[in-house]
Every structure is written in structure tokens, then in C-alpha cells.
Amino acid sequence: MTGSPLSEIDRPNSYIGRSVPRPNARRLVAGRGAYVDDLRLPRMAHVAFLRSPHAHARILAIHAEEARRAPGVIRVVTGRELAAHCTPWVGVLHHLKGLKSAPQHAMAVDRACWQGEPVCAVVARSRAEAEDAAALIRVDWEELPAVTDMETALDPATPVIHPDLGDNLAFRREHVGGDPDAAFADPEAVVVEATFHTGRHTGVCLEGRSILADWNPAEERLTVYQSTQAPHMMQTVFARHLGLREGQVRVVCKDVGGSYGIKVHVYPDEVATAALSKMLGRPVKFVADRIEGMVSDIHARDHRLRARAAVRRDGTLLAMEVDDLTGIGPYSVYPRTSAVEGNQVVNLCGGPYVLKGYRAKTTVVFQNKTPTCQYRAVGHPIATAVTEGLVDLAAEAIGMDPAEIRRRNLIPDDAYPCTSLSGMRFEALSHHKCLARLLEMMDYERLRAEQAELRKHGIHRGIGLACFIELTNPSPFMYGIGGARISAMDGATVRLDPDGSLAVASGVTEQGQGTEAILAQIAATAVGVPVERVRVVTGDTEVTPYGGGTWASRGAGIGGEAMLQAGLALKEGILAVAGAMLQARPETLDIRGGVVVDRASGAERLPLEELGRVVYFRGDTLPRDLPRELVATRHWTPKEYPFCFTNGAQASYLEVDVETGFVRLLGHWCVEDCGTVINPMLVEEQIRGGVVQGIGGALFEHCVYSPEGQLLSGSLADYLVPMSGEMPDIHVGHVETPTRESALGAKGAGEAGTAGAPAAVQNAINDALRPFGARVLAQPFTPARILAALGRI
Amino acid sequence: MKPAPFAYLRARSLAEAFDALDRHGEEARLLAGGQSLIPALNLRLATPAVLVDINGLAGLAGIALQGGVVRIGALTRHAALEASEIVARHLPLLAEAVPQIAHPAIRSRGTLGGSIALADPAAELPACALALDATIVAMGRAGERRIAARDFFRGLYQTDLQPGELVAAVEFPVQPPERRGCVLELARRQGDYAIVGLAAAATVQGDGALRDPRLVFFGVGPTPVRAAAAEAALAGAGGVAAAQAALERDLDPPADLHGPPQFRRHLARVLLGRAAARLLG
Ligand SMILES: Cc1cc2nc3c(=O)[nH]c(=O)nc-3n(C[C@H](O)[C@H](O)[C@H](O)COP(=O)(O)OP(=O)(O)OC[C@H]3O[C@@H](n4cnc5c(N)ncnc54)[C@H](O)[C@@H]3O)c2cc1C
């Protein structure tokens, strides 16, 4: 922001832009966190679910007599029994034209449609007893043919998973922008094409999914303690499907141990737990263990993309075309739907570049595997891998340096506002600044020289670049317009207590990413108090303002702006009172460090605790009609743009052992523009964590299925999450282009790392392999795949 | 996941442990470091009725140099092997293997005896036992029984251990200075079980020949696999290339999530080449 005049948020005692530590870090490190599993309520019971061992099978009979008699068992409930207490849902959004899905029950009623679908619930005194009893249940199954290959899901010979839907097609969308046919027909066009695969994977949270539901029959109220990102959305869901009014449901999120989008969806076992609590009139807890989490947490990114690009010999990119196919499991996940990822691919491919033509199509099909849905950076890592993969192929085809071709085609930094050929509106991005900063940070020229030198010694290193855009801060155009009760607006409340401290509450939530830290910084800055004097409450539908929660990197941009406005409003209220007490005009006063000061001289006039004392305990000494509102609430939602966009550039430097196919990551760089950086430490943590998750998808993580639909990588011994030992140093740089939609200017930083990392790694590996004429485009880039590309196995 | 119910017995003496094994037979399981057994219990892959905890039997731990052998008690933790000067000096191959086992937290509890008795085909220590011609000391109520490592590993998680017996110690012959060894493995992540590993040893004198080579691969079959054809080729005129070719006969690796059999064969050849270079280097 250098050069621009100081704004209200840059005042001398501003916390904006400072690496303030998380207020909750010490508590969590000291083991005083309160995750759902830590909570114990009187008469609490535990539920374990019997899950389908088959990808697709009819339930002929469930024999649960022995389980019902087992020690500690309180109730055994089948899917059919539960269905009487809990209505099914259909995961569609009206604005995604043609999207269809079948009614999904909290537990399978007649038929299980994926391995891991809950079939029968056992409620017992302890989880161990519930598991013991679940092991005694016998189900008579009639196995049905499983649809597992998305490539053949629409073939006439393939069975239709939900006959009522007519076929296995969930959604299809094609978008054409500009004139792609003319661009590909350009006489100077060189056309490159390739098929990319992004491997199905999932987000592995430290804390598994968990819920403790407590139906209180006396009050007719349901209190749900849940590890979720979206408490208000879940309030609606529980109310709707358990036949309650929203006001009868309270959702509380204490500490949440990571979420990454995994915990923003409606899970059958969690809704079933709430229904069981209502049936039994007592608290019921469910904590997904790692093994059931692997088959029941949403998966993501199971895509095959055929793509091509046209480029002129002078390096001008002309057009891109992408044909995306994705398999989403047997149901579109409720309520956000499983069409969004493919839809994002259509929206985002080619996004950083000036093109003359663009055509993208997504085909979303059903299959008998774990449902897929939104996971950190929804669709972006896919779109970026394809786009940046094509750009590198184009550069190779015309013999141009990968950095140079990007420089020539990225949307100029002074071209905004503008609209992409896919219809995305960009307020202001900084691709060129980010790329220039990236190349400088990594010392691109030196790495190229080193690469060339080492090649002579048989050491094969690669450099991969990836420019990206990242959609954040969605307006109601994301979900609300499609009929989902998912708030695009968030509120914040700031209250001055008599001791001069602030109690603040927000509709956005804390998952470990530090939202509460930035909310405290913003409130402290807006009001003018030391940040230590701010206490933050999030994640309780009963006490926080209504809001959407945490997703699409919206916490800082939307929740933060609401907090800023609430803080400024409170400050105005405080200064009105202070003006009366000090017989000064409020405009001549300010609040700094928790003290009302003279704005011009900075001279201290009145500590806030004194103001608080007088207002709360000696109001009789104040003018009779003086307003004395020491609480302010403000709401904010984006209005100008359907989505905010951030951007950035990443680079990977790595070495491929061409004898073994193993990849060693040597360095990773990310320069991102999240608008106003509220807390550099937290932004960098978000970027690093995101990069690691992106690298996970590129190199390690893979939900591998047998042709029969059995998950083969179903434990953390086989599903390889990225570990610190393999991670390179990740260097983060910032460019700040604040959004002008809000006073805060924050755009969001939670997903940028994940969006660009796989593309950077992909391009770096292929850069290393180039002398061998080998190429890998199917993630994860495993040693076996690299050796196969090299023709060594 | 929670384990199925089990009874727990903390043995105060070997006799108590043998009593429990006799009484409960197949239903009893020894508990050493628990780093393999506890996950198996939690996954309900193992559902023993009784756990017999031998961690209190101090006599089963310890590293001692006795004449020409290093005797290592079954309860010796991986971390203790890692820190041992006796191991570093006399069994450098073993010293090189241990840091490649799992992660520090697991090495601080996991035991030599547990690893040998479990006989995971991808584990380092059984392969080292073969490569170093170790002797497994089994103990039962009737006393000790010594089994050469080459006779001990029988099949997938199958050993020569008889009902009522436990592994008391492993004896490794002291390696003379001209006997060189190395342990190389390829794992996707630091600490993972190897996709393919190789414990290699040979006698190296001034002439650049590898005499009496031992090539023990792990992660490539149901047990650690001694590559006899490759060993013969390596000692013969064909050298490394012939040995690599001979692996075709020695190894019949399985396919798994990492890749097809030819992937492991290829990696085994690469490791053999690298090990030979190390031994000669
Ligand atoms: C994440 C993870 C990664 C790992 N990676 C590796 C690796 O890379 N390489 C590797 O080698 N290991 C690895 N391990 C396994 C670890 O080394 C184990 O500790 C070891 O294999 C078993 O030793 P333990 O003492 O823990 O045995 P336990 O788990 O206590 O027992 C294992 C089995 O051996 C039996 N047993 C134990 N002691 C005796 C005895 N004295 N006599 C007879 N039977 C006995 C038990 O009854 C049980 O059946 C890993 C473990 C984990 C959790």
C-alpha cells in the first residue's frame, strides 16, 4: 500500500499488517482445547455406524438381535427406522441448470451406494461397546454391479445408479467465450494438446469429523456441538430434516482441528447422530475415526481433462479448450452440491491470461465411490494444473522460456477492471507484479544456470512456474441464488465492557487458521484498544451474529470487514459519550491504546475503564438524553462483484532421480496478492499449509479404488499425506492490491497456496524430464508413473 | 476405532509370561513396544483375548559384546540400537538401518524382538539379521533354542517361533573391518516402510572384488529375500551388471499401490548398483 494516503486503518496504533500471535495458541498448546471429543455431557451415549462393505448392494435383511443384547447397548437403529425421524435431502442448486441428484438418506434404507455408506447405527454407553455390538450385526446383501469408471459411466451398457434419474449424468455445462474456433484456425497457430488427470484425494484434518447432539425434550431444543465450518448452515439443515424450526436448534463449535472444506458439508452420519439424540432424548456423540473418515469424508478432484491451446510463434496465446470429466460418487453432496468443482474448472481455466477464444465443458457423472465435494481451493488446483500445463507445452512447442511466455500473455496489471472469457469479473489483479517478484525471489536466472550446469553431470532438476487466480468472498451468487440457505453475509458485534476491554463476536469461525486473531486485530484497531484486551467469540449460533462461517477464504474479507465496521461504529458511540464527559467535540477526540486522547496532540484524556465505570455504574452523572450504546453490530456482504479474486504466482524447484523416479523438492516460492495483509504471519502460514496440501495432491495423496469400488488406500499407511520431511522450504512474498469494495481491503488468503502448488510441481517435473522427451500429466506424480514415462519400467 | 475387549497381564517374570502363553495359547499375544500390535488391535485386525506385557522383564533388554558376538536383548528399543556404540563399532550395517525405521517416537518404543517376531517383509531388522548371519535366540519354558536367521523367516508374518516361545535375543557375529555393509531403501516418505530395501554386505580387500556377498532385499516378497543368484553373479566375473540381471531369477515382487512388479524389480536393480558402488567406494 506504499504511496497511498494513510487510511483510518493505518493509524499509529494499528494492528493491521502486524504478525500478532493467535490468542488461542497457548491454550491449545497447553492441552486446554475443547474439541468435540473432549466434551462430556450427563447421560451421554456414543454411536458407531455399521457401514456398507460393498460399493453397491441391496440390503435384503439386517440381523441385529445379537447386537441389541450386547453389553452396554442402548439402541440399534436401521436406516429404515431412522428414515421415520429424518427426511432425505437432494443436493441440487437451481442456478446450476440441469443438475440432478437422488434423495439421500442419513443411513441407507434399501440400498448402499458406496463402500462406507452408513447402514445401521448402534448407540451404546461407550464407543468401544458400540463397536463391539456393531461387529455382531449381520446384513444379507445382494451385491449390485458397481459403476466405478467415470469414462464409461454414461455408456448405454453401464447400469444406471439411480434409475429414476434416467442416466448417470449429474450435470453438464459448456461455456464458449470469444471465438475459439477462429483462434485455433489462425494460420500462425501452433496447437498443443494433452490429457491431464488430477487424482481423487481428500483433506485429512488432524481432528476427524465429530458431533455431539443433545436433544432436550423439556425445552424441545437441540444443541449440537460440532466440528464444522458453517454453524448457521448446519442449524438450518438439522431443523429442516428433523422437523424443527431453526430457532429450536443451536449449533456450537468449540475448537475445530482443521477443516479445509471437509467440514462444510452435510454428512449422513452426523445428521443421523442428531436424529438419534432426538429419538433417544439424550446426548449422543459421534467421532469419526480415521478409517471410517477415509470412506465417508468427502473426496475431491477426481478429474480427467482433455485440453488444447493455440499459440503463435511469437508467443501470443490465442485460445484454450478444456473438456473436463469428473466422477462425484452416487449423490451430489448437500447443500453445496458436487457440481461446483467442475463448474469452477469451467470458470477458471485460462483465467490469468488474455485469450481470444475459450471453450470449456464439464461433465459430472455419478459413480459408486465416496461422494466428492468442495475441498480447499475448489477446482482451482485442477484449472491451474491444466492451464499452466498448457502454457508450458506451448512454450516448449515454440521454444520460448516459460517465464517469458507468461510475461507476454498475463493480463496487464493496468487492464482492470476486466472480464475473462469465462465471464469472471476481475476488479484488480497483479499478475505481472507477482511474477516479477517471484522470479526475483527465486533468482530464476541463477536456477536456470544451475540446472543447465548440473544436467551435464547427470543431475536432472526442473523449474516449474504457475500463475493463478483464486476466487474468494463469494456474494449470494455462489449459493444463495441457487436456493441454499448459506449466508453470504456475516455480522460482527463489538461490546465495550466496564473495564475497557472488548468482547467481540463474529459469524465467521475459527478452525485453527487464526480467524480469531485477525478479528481481534481488526477490532482493536478499529476501536483503538490494545489487542490483548479483545476477547473473541465465534462458532455459536445462539450468541454470534448470523453468518456463513468459514469457506472460500471469506473470513478476513467478509467477517473482517463486518468487524471493522462494527468497531468503528462502537468507537463513534464511545467518543460521543467521551465528548459529553470531557466537554469536547467528539471529532476532536480519538482512542489510542485504550485511552481517549486529544486527536491533534495525542494527550491522554480519559481511560476507557473510567468511561466504562461512569456509563455502567454512574450513568446518573451523564446528560439525561445522551445515547450510551456501548455495543455495535454491523453486517457486510459483497455487492459490487459476484466474487472477489486474488492472484499469485508459484514456483517449484526440484530434482528427479531418473533411475528411481523419485522427486526431491528443493524449494518452493509463492508470491500472492490477498489484498490487505492483516497478519503476515497468518497469511504465510495459510500459504505454506496450502502449498503443502497442493504438493500432497501432486505427489502423494491418492484415493485408489479397485474396479469393484473398494477403496484400497483406506488408511494413513496407504494414503500418503505430505510430511515435513519431504517438504521444501516455502518462501512467501506479498503484493498488496486491496479490494476497493471494502474499507479493510482484504481479499482472502486461505486457498491460494493449494491453487497453484500442484501446477508448479507438475511443470517442474516435466521441465526436469524434458531432455528425455518424457512427460507426466496424471497426478499424483508417483515414482512408478515417472519411471513409466521415462520408459524404464 | 477401539480395540475389541482384551485382558491385560503384566508379566513380572519370564515364568509368568510362559504360564500365560501356556494357559491362553493362541488367544494370548505378547506386548513389547506395541508399535505394531496396538495399531492392529485398534483396527481389529488382531483380537487376542489376553495381552501379556513383557516390558517389565528387564533381563530381556540390553546390548552386550560377548566374544565374537553382539547379543542384543529382544526388548532393546530401536532408539537404544541407534545410540549404541557397540552397534556402531561392530555392526555398522545395523547402525545404518535403524534410523531408517519409522520415526523417532516409534523408535523410542519399538523393539528388536518385536520386529523380528513380527517379521514384516518390508522391515529393516529381519533383513539385517539375514545379511549379518544372525542367530535368533528363542526361549520357552524348556530353555533356549538358537535358530539361524536364514531358517527363522518362514513366510508372510510367519516365523519358526513355536507356541509358548518368545524371542529372547538376537546374536549378531561381530563384523570384521574388511566386511563392509550398507542398507539402502526407497520409501515415498521418510520413515515409511520401504518400497524396496537392500541390506548388503561383502568382504572387500584391496583388489576391488566383492567376496562372499550378502544381498538381502526387503519389501519384495513374503519374507526378506536373499538374492542368491545375484550374490553368485556379483562374486563372479560378470560383476554388478550380471548381478542386476540375475535379480530376475531371485525376486518375484508383488504389485501394490506403489506400482507393478516390474517397478520393484527395477528399483531393486538400481539399489543393487548403488549398494555395490557403496561397498566398493
Ligand atoms: C507409523 C509406523 C511406521 C513404522 N515404520 C517401520 C519401518 O519403517 N520399519 C520397521 O521395521 N518397522 C516400522 N514400524 C514398526 C515398528 O518398528 C515396530 O515397533 C516393530 O516392528 C515391532 O516392534 P514392537 O516392539 O513395537 O512390537 P509389538 O507391536 O509390541 O509386537 C509386534 C508383534 O510381535 C510380537 N512380539 C513382540 N515381542 C516379542 C518377542 N520378544 N517374542 C515374540 N513375539 C514378540 C507381538 O506379540 C506382536 O505380535 C512402524 C510402525 C509404525 C506405527
TrEMBL record, chain B:
Q: Keywords in alphabetical order, please.
A: FAD, Flavoprotein, Oxidoreductase
Q: Note the SMART domains from the entry.
A: CO_deh_flav_C (SM01092)
Which residues are in the FAD-binding PCMH-type domain? 1-177
What domain of life does the UniProt record list for this protein's source?
Bacteria
Cited PROSITE patterns: FAD_PCMH
Q: Name one Pfam family in it.
A: CO_deh_flav_C
Q: Does the record carry Flavoprotein as a key word?
A: yes
User: Does this entry carry the keyword Oxidoreductase?
Assistant: yes
Annotated protein name in UniProt: Xanthine dehydrogenase family protein subunit M
Q: Which organism is it from?
A: Caldovatus aquaticus
